[in-house]
Each structure stands twice: as C-alpha cells, then as structure tokens.
Design brief:
Elements (H helix, E strand, L loop, with lengths): L1 E7 L3 E7 L3 E5 L4 H11 L2 E6 L5 H4 L2 H7 L5 E4 L9 E3 L4 E4 L2 E7 L8 E5 L2 E5 L2 E2 L2 E2 L7 H12 L6 E4 L4 H11 L4 H15 L7 E2 H7 L8 H11 L6 H16 L1
Helix pairs in contact: 4-9, 5-6, 8-9
The chain binds zinc ion (ZN) and fe (iii) ion.
C-alpha cells in the first residue's frame, strides 16, 4: 500500500491510498487534481473517506461519484457531510484498497470529526496538524483537547496525515510558546528547505509532533507557564492550558 499527497487549492492535501491498481482518496475537496492523478497512474477509484463536513474536504465527492458510480463514501455519523453514503463512527472498521482502518470519533474542530487509523497511518483531517491543530469551529476546546490526547497515545512511529500544509506557519507559533525548544528550531530549518523545493512536509511521525507541537505538550511546565502568561491567570488543568494556547494562536498569531 502506497500513500501520497494530491495537492489541492492553496494548502490542502488529498491523500491517495493505492496498491498500483485500486485507489482510495481521503477528503477530496476538489475532483480535478484527483481525476488527473488517477488517469495518469491508471488507477481505479474504489472508495472515498471523509473526515468532516467542511467544503474543502468534500467539494469533489459529487463529481468523483459520477465518475466512479457505486463506490462507498465513508464519512461521519455525527454530522452531515455532503455526499457521504456510508456513515461510520467510533469502533467501526472499514476496508479500503486491501487495508483495514479503524474509525475514531475525534470531535473538536467539528462536532462529528473522524480519524481513520490503520497500517501505522492516521488520517486526521483538521484535528491534528503538523506542529499545530485545527481551530475549534463547531466542537469544543475540551473535545479537541481530548481527541489530541488520544492521538498522542498512539505508537510514536505512527505517521500522521493531516489535510493541510501548515507546518511552517505552525512552527512560527510553536516558537512563541517555547522559544528555547531546540527541536522546534531544527525542525523549522528542515521544513523551510522542503518548502523552498516545493515539497510536502507531511506525513509527520507522531514522535516529532510530541517533541514540537505545543498542543500535544500542554502537560509540560514551560508550556503551562507560557499559557498562564498569555492568560494572565493560573490555569487549573491541561484542558485550560490547551484552551489558552488555542485562543492565543487564534487571536494574536493567525
Ligand atoms: Zn475543516
Ligand atoms: Fe480544512
């Protein structure tokens, strides 16, 4: 099984899962680049996976269903995502391109957001980004924090496949939170070189996220201190630290 990105819009990645003959895509926000890639590689689309309802993740579903009639479109049971034919939820398993993926409910960015986990890969949509996380739109901060904590407990070698190329900008904010974190600085240098060559910075191994992503580091003293300094008040627990950092980034950085 091979996984590779199909760039879409300004900074989206539609992940292509293929075995050289059959293929599935995750979050096809746009059908154009997907159809082009399938044709170029002679692949047959056999399934679509949707993580959440936002249009930049579902916009290409209708046209892809027309081009490949009858294929399953897996998507969230706890929110309405356009074009989904097979609603799935926590505990379900799906089989695509000969591989099995476990469905996780990871609410927070939206109330019904899903992740798909299997073969050492996690398709996490807009829940976890490299060096960052999604904004809280229709879920809650507590939900997003809990979802990220679950992800953080996966094996460290897990490869994370978020839906956007935000790594460089996220590392800029990570430096606000932890200016003295050398892992962030060395990662930034590598990411800058990749971006200058136009290459993706994803997937991202979980161990690297644990070392550089402030939203997964809300239990560390220096992250707690930075969050309290921004909030101007002591913070009672990790969820409060998470909420402060997320709010700080929304209001001051983005
Ligand atoms: Zn989204
Ligand atoms: Fe998105």
């Amino acid at each position: 099984m091979n996984i590779s990105p199909i760039p879409a819009f300004d900074d989206n990645y539609i992940w292509l899962i293929s075995d050289g003959h059959d293929a599935a895509v995750v979050d096809p926000g746009d059908e154009g680049p997907v159809l082009e890639r399938l044709q170029r590689e002679g692949l047959q689309l056999t399934a679509i996976l949707i993580t959440h309802k936002h249009g930049d993740h579902t916009g290409g579903v209708k046209a892809l269903k027309q081009a490949f009639p009858g294929i399953p479109v897996y998507g969230p049971a706890h929110e309405t995502a356009s074009g989904v034919t097979c609603q799935v939820r926590e505990g379900d398993w799906i089989e695509v391109v000969g591989a099995r993926f476990q469905v996780w409910d990871v609410p927070g960015h939206t109330e019904g957001h899903l992740a798909y986990y299997g073969e050492g890969a996690l398709f996490c949509g807009d829940t976890l980004f490299s060096a960052g996380c999604g904004r809280v739109f229709s879920g809650t901060h507590r939900q997003l924090h809990d979802s990220l904590r679950r992800i953080a407990a996966l094996p460290p070698e897990t490869l994370c496949y978020p839906a956007h190329e935000y790594t460089l900008a996220n590392l800029g904010f990570a430096k606000w939170v932890e200016p003295e974190n050398l892992d962030i600085l060395s990662r930034e240098a590598k990411v800058l070189a990749l971006r200058e060559r136009g290459e993706p910075t994803l997937p991202s191994p979980l161990w690297l996220e644990l070392a550089t992503n402030p939203f997964l580091r809300t239990d560390l003293d220096r992250v707690i201190c930075a969050a309290q300094k921004y909030a101007g008040t002591p913070l009672a627990d990790e969820a409060a630290v998470f909420t402060a950092i997320r709010t700080w980034k929304d209001k001051e950085y983005d």
